[in-house]
């Protein structure tokens, strides 16, 4: 099968298209013919080993996992003898968590993993981009115990996590303010944001508004400046935080007179979460946002574009 392989950390050029052995499902696994995946910030961080801590978990000198990609949509080609939830021919989508491997034509997946039947109303490319931002936003909004009518500010509202967070926060009944650049204001408004702040023209931390939850999806917000905009006992979400930001966030939660809660770290998700996202898609309350679509053979180009940091929503990869 075709796959994008990397055997060393570095620039997008370390990604190579190769023919590799097609996997065979175990008794409790399904074999998925992948039709679409996506390039996310997590893929870029692993490819570059940036931050350095990536090497402590995924290989100090070279990557232990040679196939990136954590989200997918496709159809089931075969199943293990013990599989009961799915059948051959089912269209499915989901998130591989830490097993990765969706930059390929096929992937074996545990029956009980974070997977659900694909919504029939959108394409493989459209649904494949939802699990990364969707599970990240859902994980942190649930941990923040978001409540109806709370004021939520989402910094980086036009990215993969941001576009999902805006829609999910609105679904939970929050009053949502999105922060993005000028070119993305209309996009964020179209996703349901009650207010959009153009960060090139206005600093949200200086306008006097306060919020119950501030959600930084891109690790480009000043933690110290944002505190003045957070209510007493508010929640600060740092979903894209590096090690230094995690330390700063922890210190802030301990020392702040506002008694704030700071959330960061690795997310978790289940099939229930993927099915929840499916339900929202079916109800037209969660829409994919795709900036560009590339083929598997164009993976280097796709990574190069994502690394520039200016994408709107997601980058889809079509696999023929």
From TrEMBL:
Every copy of the Enoyl reductase (ER) domain together lies at 10-317
InterPro entries, alphabetically?
Answer: ADH-like_N, Chloroplast_QOR, ER
Protein name according to UniProt:
NAD(P)-dependent alcohol dehydrogenase
Per the UniProt record, the source organism is: Flavobacterium taihuense
Q: What's the source species' lineage?
A: Bacteria, Pseudomonadati, Bacteroidota, Flavobacteriia, Flavobacteriales
């Amino acid at each position: 099968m075709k796959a994008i392989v990397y055997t060393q950390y570095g620039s997008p050029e370390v990604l190579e298209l190769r023919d590799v052995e097609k996997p065979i499902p175990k008794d409790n696994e399904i074999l998925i013919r992948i039709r679409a995946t996506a390039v996310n910030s997590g893929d870029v961080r692993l490819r570059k080993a940036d931050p350095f801590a990536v090497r402590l978990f995924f290989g100090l000198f070279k990557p232990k996992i040679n196939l990136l990609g954590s989200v997918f949509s496709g159809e089931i080609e075969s199943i293990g003898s013990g599989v009961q939830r799915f059948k051959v021919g089912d269209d499915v989508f989901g998130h591989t968590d830490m097993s990765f491997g969706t930059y390929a034509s096929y992937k074996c997946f545990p029956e009980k993993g974070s997977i659900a039947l694909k919504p029939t109303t959108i394409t493989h490319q459209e649904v494949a981009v939802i699990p990364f931002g969707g599970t990240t936003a859902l994980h942190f909004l649930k941990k923040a115990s978001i409540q109806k009518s709370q004021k939520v500010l989402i910094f980086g509202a036009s990215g993969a996590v941001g576009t999902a967070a805006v829609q999910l926060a609105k679904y939970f009944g929050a009053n949502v303010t999105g922060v993005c650049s000028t070119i993305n204001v209309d996009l964020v408004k179209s996703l349901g944001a009650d207010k959009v702040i153009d960060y090139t023209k206005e600093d949200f931390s200086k306008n006097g508004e306060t919020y119950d939850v501030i959600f930084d999806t891109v690790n480009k917000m000043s933690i110290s400046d944002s505190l003045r905009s957070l209510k007493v006992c508010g929640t600060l979400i740092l979903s894209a935080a590096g090690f230094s930001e995690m330390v700063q966030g922890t210190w802030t939660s301990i020392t702040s007179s506002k008694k704030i809660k700071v959330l960061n770290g690795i997310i978790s998700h289940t099939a229930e979460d993927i099915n929840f996202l499916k339900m929202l898609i079916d109800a037209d309350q969660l829409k994919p946002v795709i900036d560009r679509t590339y083929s598997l053979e164009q993976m280097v180009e796709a990574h190069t574009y994502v690394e520039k940091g200016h994408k709107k929503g997601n980058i889809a990869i079509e696999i023929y």
